[in-house]
Design brief:
Elements: E1 29-31, E2 34-41, E3 44-51, E4 55-59, H1 71-80, E5 83-90, E6 104-106, E7 109-112, E8 129-134, E9 137-142, H2 143-148, E10 155-159, E11 162-165, E12 168-169, E13 183-188, E14 194-202, H3 211-220, E15 225-231, E16 236-237, E17 253-259
Antiparallel strand pairs: 1-2, 2-3, 3-14, 4-17, 5-16, 5-17, 6-7, 6-10, 8-9, 8-10, 11-12, 11-15, 13-14, 13-15
Organism: Dichelobacter nodosus (strain VCS1703A)
Domain Phosphodiester glycosidase: 85-233
InterPro entries: NAGPA
């Protein structure tokens, strides 16, 4: 989804409905590279992938500075590099030049700077934030927190808005907004486990959720911090679950991979 500019200010609303962890409320099954579950919430079906043991990687451009563009191309490139690809998902809003709209760090290299500009569109709903990895640990923080004390990250992506902050739904998300799109997000629970979540379908007579309903679904499965990644064009690759041809064009993507000779 493309991003434009406008200023928005936001507080955080407290919620009385918090769950301990997603693992206690989702029927996960073991798959290569992690665990997978589906759940139904307010007439919408969701898919959840929780990576285990295998490394999370961010992908935007190859060594020649060329965009991977599609999951199909990313899958082929990673396979040619000797990786087994367990999971792929689009990662963050991008601009008209097919560049991440904000911060992008890949293999410890800063490829796109932090974006603190005000503007319109989901990316600029405040607070927006950063999902980043350090020594295989996952974190989600606000853009302001990153700016004030930038960590040394192996990988990082900035997107927005933050959907869940310390277990509470971002109050800047209007409950009755009619924008209903396919959506995906990343969240961490109290145990700092990572969940990649995406809407997959909706019941007859229903529709995909707005941002508030999407955030509420994430809250009910135990997300403590959640960052919106994108909507409308969102997609994922998971063998045996979503392995059709993936030709939708993105900028950044997230992959969960392992070397073929790993035991």
């Amino acid at each position: 989804m493309l991003v434009a500019l406008r200023k928005i200010i936001v507080p955080v609303i407290l919620s009385s409905f918090l769950l301990e962890t997603a693992a206690a409320h989702l029927d996960f099954k073991k798959v290569a590279g992690g665990n997978f579950a589906r759940f139904h919430h307010q007439s919408v079906d969701y898919a959840v992938f929780m990576p285990e043991h295998d490394k999370i990687r961010f992908l935007w451009q190859n060594d020649r500075g060329e965009n991977y563009q599609t999951m199909h191309h990313a899958l082929r490139a990673l396979t040619n590099e000797g990786y087994q690809v367990h999971f792929l998902m689009n990662a963050g809003i991008f601009n008209q030049n097919a560049q991440p709209a904000g911060l992008w760090i890949e293999k410890k290299a800063l490829l796109r700077p932090l974006n603190r500009r005000s503007g319109k569109g989901n990316f600029h709903i405040q607070p927006n934030g950063v999902f980043y990895l350090t020594q295989e640990k996952a974190h989600i923080i606000t853009t302001v927190q990153w700016h004030n004390n930038p960590p040394k990250a192996d990988y990082a992506v900035q997107s927005g808005p933050l959907l869940i902050i310390d277990g509470a739904i971002n109050s800047r998300l209007p409950k009755n907004h009619k924008a209903a799109y396919k959506r995906n997000a990343v969240c961490v629970d109290k145990a700092r486990r990572v969940y990649f979540v995406i809407t997959t379908r909706y019941d007859d007579g229903a529709h995909f959720p707005n941002l508030y309903r999407f955030a509420h679904a994430l809250q009910t499965i135990g997300c403590q911090q959640a960052l919106y990644l994108d909507g409308s064009l969102s997609d994922f690759y998971l063998p045996m679950e979503s392995s059709r041809f993936h030709w939708q064009k993105f900028a950044g993507m997230i992959a969960v991979v392992s070397k073929r000779n790993d035991k």
